Amino acid sequence: MRNSRHWLGQTIEAVFALAVFTRCVLPMYGQARPVSGNFVDVTKAVGIRFFQQASPTSKKYLPETMGSGVALFDYDNDGRLDIFFANGAPIADPTPMGTIPEKKGQKYWNRLYHQKPDGTFEDVTEKAGLAGIGYSTGVAVGDYDNDGFEDLYVAGYGRGTLYHNNGDGTFTDVTDAAGVRGSGWMTSAAWVDYDNDGRLDLVVARYMQWDFKDIVCVDSKGTRGYCHPDLFKPESVLLFHNDGGGKFSEASHKAGIDKPGKGLGVATADYDRDGRMDILIANDAIQQYLFHNKGDGTFEEVGLASGIGFDGGGHAFSGMGVDFSDYNNDGWPDIVITDLAHQRYALFTNLKDGTFDYSTSILGLATISLLHSGWGIRFMDYDNDGWKDLLIVQSHVMDTIENSEPNLHYRESPSLLHNERGVKFVDVSAVSGSVFRQQWAARSMAIGDLNNDGRLDAVVTSNDGPVWVLLNQTETANHWITLRLVGVKSNRDAIGAEVRVLTSAGEQFATITTTGSYQSSSDKRAHFGLGGEDSIREIDIRWPSGIRQVLKNQKVDSILTVTEPVNELHKANP
Amino acid sequence: MSQATERTSELSQLQTAANELSAGKLDQAERDLDSVLASSPEDYRALDLLGVVRVLQHRQADAETLFERVVKTKSDFAPGHAHLGLLYLQLGRTQDAVPELIEALQLDRTRTDVASALAHILQDEAKAASASGGWDKALNLLIEARKYAPDNPDVEYEFGVAAQKLSLYDDAIEAFQRTLKVRKDDALAMYYLGFALMDRARYDDALQQFARYIELRPEDPAGHGAMGMALAGLGRSEEARSQFERSIALAPALGESYYRLGLLDLDAGDYDRATQDLHAALEHKPNDAGVLVALGKVEFEQKHYPEAITLLQQVISQDDSAQEAHYYLGLTLARMGRKEESSEQLEISARLEQQRKERGRHLLRLNKSDDLEQKEPAAPQ
Asked: Which of A245, B7, B152, B162 has its CA at 20 to 30 Å from residue B65's CA atom?
C-alpha cells in the first residue's frame, strides 16, 4: 500500500516544493540585551475597584468580547490625572433584534475616579454625573468648547454621549443639543481639529452593521464562538464637525470620509507634515484606511497607495489597536496596528514621501507578535532613553480559542518591547515585572504619567473583568521633560501641535493627541525621555494654527506648561 | 430421510466444503458442493462456495454466473454480493463492483474485506482526481474512503495531503497524526505534518517533526530545508541559515534553499545578499514566481522601481492571479507617482485577496470525522 501514496507524495524533492505554497514571513533579529522595565500593579493600593461588565450570553453576541475603554485626563485641572472607565450594560439571553442595551444597576455604571494628592483615587461618578446610559465602548477626551476643562465623549453600541465638563466637578450630557448621538456600533473615538479652525471635531469609528441576530458560528471543534466580521457588512466612520456654540454637524459624507469599514481603532497624526491632521482607522479583517487631509475640509482615503492597507504580503489583517507616532525619531509619524495571532502586528515606517514601508519583520515584531493577539497599543518611552518603546495589551478575541488552536490562548500577558534606537524592538516583558507574567483578557489601555514622576504609567482594562493600574517604577537615571501645551488661537488642548525636542544627542518628535490604542484616551501631555542629556537646546512647537514657537535651554525633569504665543506670531519665544 | 435430517446433512457437507476450500482442496470441495446442489439445485450457499472454487480455478466467467444466481436467489445474502463485487473488481469492472460491494456492506457491516475494497476504489479515484488538479474532489473521495477504512494509515496520509493542498490545515494535522499513530516512523507523514503545523504557526511543534525526520533521513536536503523554515518562523535566523546552507550542500541544484536564504536576507534588510541568493535560486528554478516576486521586493525596497516593475510584470505575465506581484507592482507604481496604473494593480490585488479570503472562509475546517461516520457512506463514482 505504500506505493499508493506516490500519487500524492511523489518524490522528496517534489514534496519540498510544497514549501512554495507555504512561504512565510521570516523574521531577522535574534535576542539583544534586554533593557528591563518595572511596571507594578497598584490598582488596589490606589483604591480602584472596577469590573467591566461584558454580559456574556450563550448566544455569543459580539459586543460581549470587545471590551470597554479607559481615559486618563485631568478633569478638575488639579495637575493630577484622573481615570474614567467605560462599562457595558446587561444583555439578555437571548436579546431581540433592534435592542439597544441600557445600563441597569450600579455595576454597569461607567466610573470616574478622581486622583487625590496622595496618589489614591476616589470614585466620584455619581457627583460627576457620568454613570452613563447604554453599552459603552470607546472614550475620547477633548476640550471641545475651549473653556479650559476637558470634556468627554463616550461611544457606545447604538448611541454615544457627549459630556460637557462644567468645571465644578460635574458634567452635563449635551449629546442631543450638540447633535453627536451617532448610531450603530461605535467603537473608538478621537478629538481632532481637522480644519484647523481652533475647535476640536469628533471622529467616531464604527465597527460594522451588526444586530442581535442569533447567528450560530462554531469553531473547528464544533464549539459555539463569536462570529467572524466577514459575516457582516461594513459601516462608515462618523465625523462630527464642531460648528461652535456647542453644535456639531455630521460631515462624514461631505468630507469624503464615509468609506464603509470595520473600524476598531482610531489614531490621528500629520503623516505628510503638511500642517493638517490625517486620520487612521484600524479595520478588522479588511483593508486599513488612511484618510489624507486635503486641507479643503475633505479627505482622500490613501491606505492602499500609501502601503498601509495590507500587510507585507498584500493580505488583510484584523486591525484592532493602533498608534500613529514617530518611533525612529526622524520627525515623521509611523504606524503600528495590533491584530490577531498568526497575523503579526503591522508596523509601517513613514518614508517621508507619502508612503510607508511594512517593517514588521525587519524591526523584529514578526517573531514577537506571531502568537499574540493585541488590542491596546502605544508607543511610549518607558525608560526615558529617548526612544519610544511599545506597550501592548493582549488577549485572543475568542474565549474558546484553546479548543481549536492549542498553541493560542484567550488570556495573555501584556508585552513590553524596547526600542533599540529605531532599528529593532526587543521583547523585555520577561524582565519587566510580574504583571508581564499575568494572563489577562485585556482590551483597552491608556498611557499617562499618573504620579508626575516623569515615567509613563498605564491603565489597562479587561473584557468582563477587572482593570489594572500599572505604575512605571523602572529604575533609570535618564532625564525627561513633559510638555503641557495650552492653545489660544489653536484648540485649547493643542491637539495636532507638533513638538520637536532637540538635545545634543539628537531630536525627537511628538504630536499632541489623546487618540490611539483601542477605545481609549491617553494623557494629552507630550512626554520625552532624554537619556543622559541634562539640558534641552531647543523645543520647537508648530501649533495647529500655524504659529511656530521655539523655546531655548529648558530645564529637564520637569513638567512645562507652554501657552500658544498669539501675540508674537511666528517669533521665537525665549 | 426426513427433511430436517436432509438439511443437517447438507449443512454438514457445506461446512466440510468450506473447510476444504480453505485448505486449498478445490476438487474435494467441488465434489461436496456438487452433491449438495444435486439434491438442492438452488442452495445459495453451495452456489456461492462453488463460485469461489471457480474463481480459484481461474474460471471467472463461470464464477460470475454462479454469483449472479446467488444474489438472484437470495438477495439479502451478503457473501454473494461481496464475492460478485470482488470478482468484478478483479475483472476491472469497477462500476459493476461498487453497487455489489455497497450492498454487501449494508447487509453485513463486519465485512472488512469489502470495506477495504471500497476504500481502495475511492483511493484510486482520488488519485486520478488529484492528478488532474481536482483536489477538492480527491478530498471528498477520501472522506468516503475514511468511512470504509477508518484506521487505515494510507488513507489518512492521502487525506492529509489533500487537506493540506486545500488549506484545511487542522484536518491535515489530524490526519498525519493518525498516520503516525499507526506508523511511528513514517518520515513523509512527519514531513507533511511539519508543514501543516507551520501553516498554523505552530513552529515549535513543526520543528520537532522535522528534527525526527532528519534523524531518520540525515542526508535529505528537504528535511534540512524544512527545518530551516521552522527555525526561521521562530525567529532563530542564524540556525535557519545553517539549515538552508546544509540543504544546499547536500543538493546544490535544489533552488528552494537559496530562495529561503533570500527571504531571510530580505527580512533582515540585507538586500545585496538577498539579490545574490535569489539569483542563485533563479538559476535552479528559472521563472519561479516566488523567487521573482522576492527579487521584485528587493528592488522595491532599494527604490529601484523600474527593475522592480520588470520583475513583477514578468510574474504577472506568467500568472495573472499572482496577488503579491500585483500588490507590489501597485505599490511601486504609487511610489513612482503613476497613480492610475497603481490603483489598477492595487485593486486587482485587493480583489484577489478578497477571493482568497472567501475561499478560506469556506475551507476553515471539515466536519469532524466522527460526525461523518454516523452518516451513510456514499457510493464511489
From this structure: B7
Beta strands in chain B (DSSP E): none
Rounded to whole angstroms, the Cα distance separating B186 from B193 reads: 11
Phi, psi of A181 (to 5 degrees): -60, -40
Report the 10 Å Cβ neighbour count for A254: 13
**To which residue does cell 439571553 refer?**
A93
Where does residue A5 rank: exposed (0-12), middle (13-18), buried (19+ CB within 10 A)?
buried
User: Which ipTM score applies to this complex?
Assistant: 0.89
Q: Which three cell numbers stand for residue B263?
A: 527571504
Q: Which grid cell sits at A130? A: 457620568
Classify A561 as helix, strand or coil: strand
Burial of B326 (0-12, 13-18, 19+ CB in 10 A): buried
Q: What is the C-alpha to C-alpha distance for residues B8 and A491, in angstroms, rounded to an integer?
A: 108
Cβ neighbours around B283 below 10 Å, total: 12
- Residue A268: CB atoms within 10 A of its CB come to 26
Which of A1, A27, A362 minimises the CB distance to B235? Answer: A27
Closest CA to B334 of B351, B326, B321, A273: B326
Is residue A421 over pLDDT 60?
yes
pLDDT in tens, A519-562: 999 999 999 999 999 999 999 999 999 999 999 999 999 999 99
Interface of A with B in 223-242 (CB under 8 A): 228, 230
CB within 8 Å: A30 and B235: yes
A19 and B323: CB-CB below 8 Å? no
Least confident stretch, A5-9, A398-402, A556-560, B160-164: A5-9
Q: Which of B299, B327, B362 to mutate to test the interface with A (most CBs of A within 10 A)?
A: B327
Q: State the greatest distance between any 2 C-alpha atoms of chain A, in Å, as a whole number.
A: 90
Task: List for chain B the helix, strand, coil content (%; round to 5).
Answer: 80, 0, 20
Residue A235 · residue A208 · CB < 8 Å: yes
Which of 391-420 (A) contact B at CB < 8 A? 404-405, 407
On the CB side of A93, CA atoms within 13 Å amount to 10
Residue A170 Cα to chain centre, angstroms = 26
| Residues in A 332-361 with any Cβ partner in B closer than 8 A | 341-342, 353, 355, 357, 361
Query: From CA A483, how far away is CA B45, in angstroms rounded?
Result: 99
Q: Which helix (H) or strand (E) holds A292?
A: strand A289-293
Separation between Cα atoms, residue B111 and residue B119, nearest integer Å: 12
CB burial of residue A341 (10 Å; 0-12, 13-18, 19+): buried
Q: pTM for the full model?
A: 0.86
A226 CA to chain B: closest CA distance, Å? 14
Residue B277 grid coordinates: 541568493
List the single residue in B with minimal CA-CA distance to A221: B368
C-alpha cell of A328?
A: 525612529
For residue B147, give the 3-state DSSP assignment: helix
Mean pLDDT over the full length of chain B: 91
Q: Which residues pair with A250 in a beta bridge?
A: A240
